[in-house]
Amino acid sequence: MKPKIIPKSISEYNKYKGNIDKLDQMLSYYSFSNRFLKWYKKVFVYLLDIAVYNSHIIYNRDSEEISFLEFRKAFVQS
To answer: Which of 2, 30, 37, 51 could form a disulfide with 41 if both were Cys (CB 3.0 to 4.6 A apart)?
Structure first.
């Protein structure tokens, strides 16, 4: 049987897709989604959620590790 040739773009996607799955999972736990918001407000809130999650990853990398919920609470209080 011949080995399958996989394009580089597909192998790169498969290599990093776990991070996207984790992002979607974490945002679904604590997401502010309101079905009454206009589409552009939903996009803004989603991008804000992504920015908060990315800052949580950087914070955990550079200092003590805290949960995403604790980080969001501290973010809102400050």
So the answer is: 37
